[in-house]
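[#protein-structures] MJ: dropping Lytic murein transglycosylase-like protein here for a structure pass
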Amino acid sequence: MTACHRLAHGLQCAVSVAAQGCFDLARNGVVLLGIAVLFVALVFVARPELRHVGELQLFDLLHRRQIAAWEEAQATTQATTQVTNIPRRPPVTLPKQLPKPQAAVAAWLSKKYRVAPEPMVAVVAEAYELGRRTRIEPTLILAVMAVESGFNPFAQSSMGAQGLMQVMTRVHSDKYRVFGGRFAAFDPLANLHVGVRVLQDCIRAAGSIEGGLRSYVGATAGDGGYTAKVLAEHARLRQVAQGHRVPTIAPTTASRPQPTVVPPTLAWRAEPTAGVAME
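AK: finished. structure tokens for Lytic murein transglycosylase-like protein:
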């Protein structure tokens, strides 16, 4: 055997040994990974409190990434209204991080609508921030969410209204552009921002809260009791925020009436004539 043949045979053997080693290493790695996943699953089953802590950390991570993505979008997109300007503040995920009135509202809503406290806290905190900037009472915003979707971020009506605020996505798809497109309709905070902007448009164009609510739900005549339900829940939430004890009666999520006309984006008036200032 010539030297070249011996060299080629040696290289072939080395490559074969290296490939077998890599295969064994990958196989052992997969086995170890499977064992680790099984161990973690067993720990979470045996220790529910650890699973709860993990869920909180995951929610906090997703919330931080969402805010970072929105801030990046804001840096490259011209905002058209104050509602879409995302504030630079740390995410809120625990009741103790809220002022006392907001914490009371979050706890009451969480109990009444059977929603986990952590996402409810985030929604309440965002509603209060948007209320401050739009001069719409945050309890009115929360009341709209309660009646529209019962705080189900994945709710969808037969007419195509979607998300927490049941926004007509096909009508207001342009408002979701800053949040990444129309599929953000099922993102709770994105839907909240767009819904508040639509509600603000409706109130200003109608000249009153009652008229704005009727326009928001798309009612051309009667609204099927929608406005009364929203205002009743709004009144209860105001009492909760003021420290009063309010019973958590069974939730009644009103379905939207079948509108004959879906309201387009309403024009802003030169001077606002409606909107409730926060107390």
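MJ: nice. Residues 3-46 form the longest helix (44 residues).
AK: one more thing. The longest strand covers residues 161-162.
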